[in-house]
Amino acid sequence: MAAIHAVHAALLLLTQRQVHPSPDSPAARARRRFTVQLGSSVLVFVLSIPLAYVNTAAAMWFWITIIPAHAVLGHYRRRPGQD
Fold it and tell me: How far is CA 25 from the centre of its chain?
């Protein structure tokens, strides 16, 4: 999952200028917000790998932290008056 999300985030970053030439467009901001959320998913899954060597169940429960991470990052990146 970490590799899939990392590749998806990389593709979003690499194609940003071709799809949205204006960095201030609402679509470009939404795309950046989604890329940051994908980065948090990568981080959670990568951190769960060493945890799985210690406690497999704890590593799977750790994946739940993706939900609040996405909520916080989605809210943090969205400023009043945008989108």
Answer: 20
Q: How far apart (Å, rounded) are the C-alpha atoms in residues 19 and 27?
A: 9
Distant-in-sequence, close-in-space partners of 73: CB < 8 Å, separation ≥ 6: 33, 36, 37, 40
Taking the C-alpha atoms of residue 44 and residue 47, their distance in angstroms, rounded to an integer, is 5
For 13-48, give one letter per residue: b (16+ CB within 10 A) or e: eeeeeeebeeeeeeebbbbbbbbebbbbbbbbbeeb
**Cα–Cα distance measured from residue 20 to residue 32, given in angstroms and rounded to the nearest whole number:** 11
Token pair 């985030």 in the structure block, residue: 9
Total length of the chain: 83
State pLDDT tens for residues 57-83. Answer: 999 999 999 999 888 887 655 555 554
pTM, two decimals, is: 0.73
